[in-house]
Structure formats: C-alpha cells, structure tokens
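INFO  loader      accepted 1 record
INFO  loader      residues=301
INFO  predictor   begin
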Amino acid sequence: MDETIGIWNAHTGNAIKQFLHGHKSAVTTVAFSPEEPWIASGSRDTTVCIWDRASGQFSTVGPLFCHSAVTAVAFSPGGRHLAACDSEHIHLWHANTDQLFNEPLHTDNDYTESLCFTADGAQIVSAGSDRRVCIWNTGTAKLVRTLEGHTSRVRSVASSCDGRYIGSGSDDYTVRLWDAKTGAPVVTLYGHAHSVESIAFIPKQRSIMSCSFDETIRIWNIEKVLSAPSEEAEVGIAVLASTDLRRGWLLGPQGELLLWVPSEYQGNLSLPHTTLISKRRITVSADAGELHAGEDWTSCW
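INFO  predictor   done
INFO  writer      dumping tokens
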C-alpha cells in the first residue's frame, strides 16, 4: 500500500532494484513482458505504468489510463500487446506505443479482477464477480464463449503455456481446469479451505499452483490427475486434498465426511493424501511400503 514496486531475485530473495516510485495510490498488479525489458504496473490511481526493469525508470510509453482502479495487467505472449482491466472494462494497447489496439471491452460484470492472454495471444480470458470465465477475441474484441461452473466470485485466471488448458480459482474454494479450445470442463480441484486468491501454471512441471486465504500454497500435477483410469477421466471428477483422518473417516477441506477407512488400512494412508472421486470409483493415495499387492485377494487382505 506504499505506492511502490520492488524487484527481487527469485533465487535468493534479495532486492535487486530500488523500489520504483510513480503511482499515486496503492499498486494492485504487476506483469513482466516476455520479450522486452519492461514491467507493467496497475494502480488504484487508474493508471498503468511501464518501467524499464534494468534502469528502474519510466518507459517512453505511458502512463496509460483506465476508467477506474486497475485490477489486473498482462502482456501478450509475444509482448506485442498489453491488456489491463478495471472493474467493468478491458483495455488493450500496442505495447510499444500508447495507442489503443481497439476500443475498451465492456465486460458486463459488476467487478472484473483477473485477466490473461491465451498461449497464442489470440484470445483474452477474464473473470470476476459474476462467477463466469469469459473468453474474448483479441482482434475483434468480441466475446467468444463463457465458461460456467464456479459457484462464487472467480479471483484468478491463467492459461497453460502449451495452450491446452485455462485455469480458474474462485471464492468457492476450488481450482478448475477447462479445455482451452472447446471450453469444456476438464477437472475440478478441491482441497483449499478458503478462497483461492491466485493461480499460475508451472510449465516445466506440467503443474498448476494455487494460493489461498487458508494460508496454503498447493501444487497440483496435471498429468497425475488426468492419468486416472479411463472410467475416472471424465467430466465431473473431483480431486480433494486433506491431511485429516478422524475416527476412521477421511475428511474433506471443510471437515465433511468423505470415506470411511477400515481400521486395518488406516495406518497405510499417505497423509497428506489425495482423494479422487468420480462417478464410478473413489481412489485414495497410500503408503505403498506397507501394502500387499497381487492377483490373489486373500494375500492383499
């Protein structure tokens, strides 16, 4: 809330640049350009500033103006465009000028607070208080489709680097993955005990990271989730993470009863564990070191 921007070494945690001063109100969002040495920042002062990250000085572009407090900024994958959203609009500029790429998009949302570009830069994804994830055509500024399924405000959206998935995190405590081409729901990830504030894909690990008001950060391995047996790999699968086993019951993120485990197996559960629930099967992770396996069920028992 001190109206400044700090740049830190991601490996050491040390500050590598003096704080950048220029905004006249709290800084709400920042983004790095993937191609140019620029940082974009958005503020409650309704402006987007662009900084040279080497010198810490203002770029020759900007400041850029929105209609109200800036809630999110994002560069396109190639760095050619810069998008920013305020509560009801998405603004899109040529990144190397202060010229609008097209007229601001009216999101028809009471409060828009997150946006990102898809991996090819052809679309913009936005979300906010109306619980929908909206996909817009970057060139035409037209709405392509809406993704519906969250039951509360969507606070964060992200696009996977391979272009296959769109992720969303919500006040309904869940992270959802969607097929980026069709908009179909892929999987819902349960485990947080409070609102999901932010999500991000981890390219090399094929994972998605989420952080929450429950003071935890979770990393979900996408391939592991989707490599469940074919009858489980269907729309509607639920993935829950929990660390609690109480009186033989596996508990969900809000203390709900999920599955009763016979006493002889309770010591074999791997905690924290992951529970996959589909229409046909419930699968829990376990400590394989103490379990028996084989075709003879009596040996396994």
